[in-house]
Amino acid sequence: MDKNLILVINCGSSSIKFSLIAPDDGSEHLAGIAQNLLSSAANITFKQNSEKLNYSLPEPFDHETALASIVGFLQDNKYAEHVCAIGHRVVHGGETYSQPILINDQVMNTLADLAQLAPLHNPANITGINAAQKAFAQLPQVAVFDTAFHQTMPEKAFLYALPYDLYQSHGIRRYGFHGTSHYYVCHEASRLLQLKQNQGSFISAHLGNGSSICAIENGKSLDTSMGLTPLSGVVMGTRSGDIDPGIIFHLINGLGYSHEQVNNLLNKESGLLGLSELSNDCRTLEEAMFNENNQQAKLALDIFCYRIAKQIAAYAASLTTLDGIIFTGGIGENSDYVRAQVVQSLSLLNIHIDEELNVATRFGQAGNIASKSSRACLVIPTNEEWVIAKQTAEVIQAN
Ligand code: ADP
């Protein structure tokens, strides 16, 4: 092992996902997750080869405790001397960051300013960076932004039809998220279709607990369904996606909801969970529909798939040609049912799937599941950690 591994950290408010990646080939030497942070149930799991080790975390059960535990594990298992940098997934880079950046005090101040655009995410990312700076004081740290890939969107795609001053004075615009995933899959799509590097026009559908669709031309994002926040666009696990904004006023003024209740309703109680009244989890809904003939689960999935197809079709307006569509994320990579339902609504775009290929392409496999005369319909397992590791290594080399 050379001294060239990157520790990739994805820090949430009560969890830290981490993996130790070789940036050259994406191989993963170690992965894990610290969960239930800030509670006495805080614990950490390390996954090495196929072995899993789980430990409780001691008081004060916080992010620093978790990172100290990671440092200990890296030292005990002789990884520590091979780690050359830390790459942090940071959700919101605003308009300031269209590229990954080496973290210094000035960057930390800017991230704190940007936290108002992503109050649910950036504060946790900042906590993670602070804790990692303490735990790995000697290592350079790089921020890789979920929003950066979408900074190529034209004004007509990123501006809302609101008073222009809200954009100029307060940065209210579409930013888009899942950028590292859309970036990775469009590059893989060019490779799979044997196009030149970065070339080709694609619409990628990242479908997981959070979902977003992106129109991409020659490696550049032209439009995407998430907006100022990750709440907009298609239906998600617990998020509503696009709704008539008038509903919010009706909930508050007509039905007496508080501002906090509406926030909770749209982010945590809507989407697949709200519609099905059963679960936010696609697999659970498919099981309920197929095994128990649960019609409300079917309805939730119908709406989920229809809205994805509508969004994909809308992006025909963003592109001049279309080489293919891409499915990725936990649902896009694994659910042949969702893929079939979505594609069924896209026959006007000449996208059709081969049923056998569709069913066979799951669980980490990549491939083109299109039928013979169709445009490409690609399934590509995403690899955001590898993108973060590669971009972190590039920033370190450039500095
Ligand atoms: P996150 O956005 O949290 O990273 P993931 O990308 O891991 O989410 O996707 C989680 C979703 O993928 C869940 O809804 C889960 O049910 C779904 N999923 C995973 N495997 C399957 C499968 N075999 N069939 C259907 N859905 C699946």
Features:
399 residues, alpha/beta, binds adenosine-5'-diphosphate, globular, 8-stranded mixed beta sheet, 15 helices
Could you characterize the architecture of this molecule?
The chain is of the alpha/beta class and 399 residues long. The protein has 15 helices and 14 strands. The protein has an eight-stranded mixed β-sheet with strand order 5-4-3-2-1-6-8-7, with helices on both faces. A hairpin with a 2-residue loop joins strand 10 and strand 11. Helix 1 packs across helix 3, helix 10 crosses helix 11 and helix 11 packs across helix 13. The longest helix has 20 residues. The radius of gyration is 21 Å and the shape is globular. The two termini are 23 Å apart. The model has no long low-confidence stretch (mean pLDDT 96). Bound molecules: adenosine-5'-diphosphate. Its cofactor is Mg(2+); Mn(2+). Keywords: ATP-binding, Cytoplasm, Kinase, Magnesium, Metal-binding, Nucleotide-binding, Transferase. It catalyses: acetate + ATP = acetyl phosphate + ADP. Pathway: Metabolic intermediate biosynthesis; acetyl-CoA biosynthesis; acetyl-CoA from acetate: step 1/2. It is found in: Cytoplasm.
